[in-house]
Design goal:
This protein is α+β, with helices and mostly antiparallel strands. It is 14% helix and 28% strand. It has a single domain, classed as MM3350-like (Structural Genomics Hypothetical 15.5 Kd Protein In mrcA-pckA Intergenic Region, Chain A).
Length: 116
């Protein structure tokens, strides 16, 4: 089996329903796990990781699975970004304790690692 090589994806993060628009642009390997992506987003936005989170892809929600109850959440620890999203696609990550959702959109033109 041939292992898929990581590309570098540029992702635009923006807070929804906030004026003026608050956004960041980050670059991550396409093979990053959702759990690690969550940590990158926390750092990029200057947040303190003080709330639970989930990545909402419509039919499936990925996040930190809690042993105490079944909330239908799929554990995001081993889920790679490139298995659930492709360049030009998008997804929402919703911090349940906050009234604001944000949208991450991988921009078209993913590049190979080391490419200028």
């Amino acid at each position: 089996m041939v292992k898929k090589q990581a590309q570098i994806w540029t992702i635009k993060l923006r807070l929804r329903e906030i004026k003026p628009v608050v956004w960041r642009r980050i670059e991550v390997p396409s093979t990053i796990t959702l759990a690690d992506l969550h940590q990158v987003i926390q750092t990029a936005m200057g947040w303190t990781n003080s709330h639970l989170h989930d990545f909402d892809l419509g039919d499936v929600r990925y996040g930190m699975a809690l042993d105490d109850f079944d909330d239908g959440m799929t554990d995001d620890t081993g889920v790679r970004l490139d298995t659930i999203c492709q360049p030009g696609g998008g997804f929402s990550q919703i911090p349940p304790a906050k009234p604001v959702a944000w949208f991450c959109e991988p921009l078209k033109g993913a590049k190979e690692p080391g490419a200028a």
